[in-house]
Amino acid sequence: MNDKLVFLGLLYFVQGIPYGLQSSLLPVYLRGAGHSFTRIAFTKVLYFPWVLKVLWAPLVDRLSTKRRWLVATVTGLALTCLSSAALAPEAHMWGVAGTLLAMNSLASVQDIAVDGAAVRLLKGRGELGLGNMAQVVGYKAGSVFAGGGLLAVIDVAGWSWMFMLLTFVYAGVALFVWGAPVLDEETVKGQQADGGRKGGQGADAVQPWRVWRKLLAVPGTPWTVLYVLTYKLGEQGAVTMFPLFLLDHHMTARELGFWNGVIAMGFSICGSSLGGLLLAQFSIGSMMRRVFVLRTVSMVFQSSLLTVLEPSPLMKGMAILSMSVQHFLGGLITTLTFTTMMHCTQRAEDSIQATHYSFLATLEVLGKLTFSALAGGVVDMFGFQVAFLFFLTLSAGTALHVWTATFTGALREHQLKEQPK
């Protein structure tokens, strides 16, 4: 099991690097180089391959092995970083944009392959929990490494040396994957399955809607689709808007960057790690019931702080506590959610598992990004207090949705029994 965790954690770590580069490092670097806010905001478009990945997921499911896909994509990331080391972002903005687009495209394909490998490698409730802990923590650690750690490197050594460092990181991971023994069994199974599913693949290639019918026919999929689209709505609005409230009334940008960007992320990683450990001991249904109720209570507490406009040390301390608890519970819920998604995907036939998981993961990203974009408009239109009442209502609705499912729906205890090893 330790080999599986190291393998998955390392791959999800390098997968989080492009996100950290684009969300944290690049805006600071480009602004320091004199680029406009409009141009910097335009870089968000480069995330688009993550939304489209479900379209090419069937290719990853059906062509070659997961090992070859992983080696090819990580090697491609290494070559992309090597070419980017020759660029100067001050003079080659479009070249930098092309680099990030290529990195996001390759990372999205890598995500499909590693998710497909994880679905086959992880067996039983305990392994699912620990494996998804490795996924969430590894991705967040990679994002923090790129967005925070590399910012120090770029200040000292410059853009070119930073990308040379990333080239060596990706090249090393590609060599590791090429020789990783944990994929030996997956490779054999994939080769054995190829002969048995060629006829079906031909029909699916001619009639791609058959794949989508298979996806939706997997037990638990309709409930999981609704869940992943909505489970973060209220929380995402609060996480996005509460720091801006603090910036207006209680904290400086530097303070907010430290408490919300570093400390809160640390609590998020701790929550994700704890989720994986607890899943080895407790059923996912009982955990989700309790954690979603706790998240709703934490949002009630955070919403009450919006009535305090006068700065004070007590208010600042309560705000920091609120953000830390919220990120901790958010990290815990993320691990539980990805475990639920993977458990649902394991009920699908082997030939569509990577596609099924990518479908759920794409909807999860769409739900969060869409509401993050709309949350600001809700605050502008109705103010913080009414907006947070709306966020709280959404969070309570999700808690009710989960609570009901643990007794009468997709999360019933007997449906989450440990799989045979």
Structure report:
This protein is mainly α. Helices cover 83% and strands 0% of the residues. The chain contains 16 helices and no strands. It has helices at 2-32, 37-42, 48-62, 66-84, 93-121, 124-157, 159-178, 184-206, 209-217, 221-230, 233-249, 253-279, 284-304, 313-345, 353-382, 384-408. The longest helix has 34 residues, at 124-157. The protein is globular. It starts with a helix and ends in a 13-residue tail after the last helix.
Present the secondary structure layout.
Layout: H1 2-32, H2 37-42, H3 48-62, H4 66-84, H5 93-121, H6 124-157, H7 159-178, H8 184-206, H9 209-217, H10 221-230, H11 233-249, H12 253-279, H13 284-304, H14 313-345, H15 353-382, H16 384-408
In DSSP terms (H or I, runs of 4 or more residues), the helix count works out at 16
Largest sheet: none
> What is the strand tally?
0
Structural class: mainly alpha
* Average pLDDT taken over every residue: 78
Radius of gyration, in Å, reads 22 Å
Q: Per DSSP, what share of the residues sits in E-state strands of 2 or more residues?
A: under 5%
**What global shape is seen?**
globular
Q: What is the share of helical residues?
A: over 70%
The stretches of 5 or more residues where confidence is low (pLDDT under 50) are: 191-206, 414-421
Order of helices and strands: HHHHHHHHHHHHHHHH
Give the termini separation.
12 Å
